[in-house]
Amino acid sequence: MTSTGPLAPRLPSPLQEVRDDRFGRRGLRLLLKRDDLIHPELIGNKWRKLAPNIEAARGRALVTFGGAYSNHLRATAAAGRLLGLPTTGVVRGQELAGRPLNPSLARCAAAGMRLHFVDRSTYRHKHEPEIRAAVLRAAGAEDAYVVPEGGSNAAAVRGCRALGEELGGHADVVAVACGTGGTLAGLAAGLPHGSRALGIPVLKGGFLAADVQALQEAAFGARSGSWSVDDRFHFGGYARTTPALDAFAQDFEQRHSLPVERLYVAKMLYGLASLAEEGAFARGTTVTAVVTGRPFP
Question: What total of structural domains would you count in the chain?
Fold first, then answer.
């Protein structure tokens, strides 16, 4: 079901070399792993994480969780529309009566996703069994297959392992922007010996390394591959940007004719350019940046 028909992906995703003097003058080669081109609606790591969960659902309705601008909610809604599966999105924050949905949630609703809003306090405790059961009951999704926030679980991590396998022999260091850590967990497990994965968290808090290890233990039974995280480039937290980040993204777009998604991809590329400037990579290193998304129109 996930390899043919409406969810058919473009795999392996293209690998594109870019000439950028911020890397070149340090003796580094920069490649872009264009996972944003995998599928027109299930972009990048969203396809890699959702596809194995859709298989596991075996035709059941899907329910998942996210904030008001969640890429994951949009991808789940799109998958449901393409496959004819009912979807429910549990949205962090209360709906404002009489106010239109933001463009992201409007797209979810247009794809057929039923939206259920919960207050932020309840949302923070959604992992507690009693709270989750009450939320699912209120959302009318008690019998639905639950995809976690961000799509990261053991099935998703195993799905993302193919990303590392596709890069075998093409990179010394592979960087990816991280929200919940599932893509990093799978990527690192799929890379060959001698390559390492670098996660750039887009949320502040310093908790991601523990989450990635827990995901790998759930998926593979133990920590797998060589990986690390650098928590310095979140720019204030999820969905936060600054003029400096926006200027960097605009410059990268102009240099390479590549639209740069701001909440994830821009932070990862900024982090790589900063690390190159710091001399974090030895001369001769091939650095690959995973482009996990593209700007929301």
Answer: 2
**Angle at which helices 182-190 and 154-166 cross, to 10°:** 50
Place of tokens 């596809």: 51
Cα–Cα distance measured from residue 166 to residue 13, given in angstroms and rounded to the nearest whole number: 8
Q: Is residue 199 part of a domain?
A: yes
First to last CA, the chain: 28
Instruction: Look at strands 173-178 and 286-290 and give their pairing.
Output: parallel
Q: Are 136 and 168 in the same domain?
A: no
Dump pLDDT digits (tens) for 235-288. 999 889 999 999 999 999 999 999 999 999 999 999 999 999 999 999 999 999
For residue 138, the domain's CATH number is 3.40.50.1100
DSSP state of 126: T
Whether 197 is in a domain gets the answer: yes
On whether the CB atoms of residues 231 and 199 are closer than 8 A, the answer is no
Q: CB neighbours (10 Å) of residue 197?
A: 29
Residue ranges, the chain, pLDDT below 70: 1-5, 97-98, 297
Closest CA to 167 of 141, 147, 195: 195
Q: Which H or E element spans position 29?
A: strand 29-33
**Are residue 112 and residue 167 in the same domain, yes or no?**
no
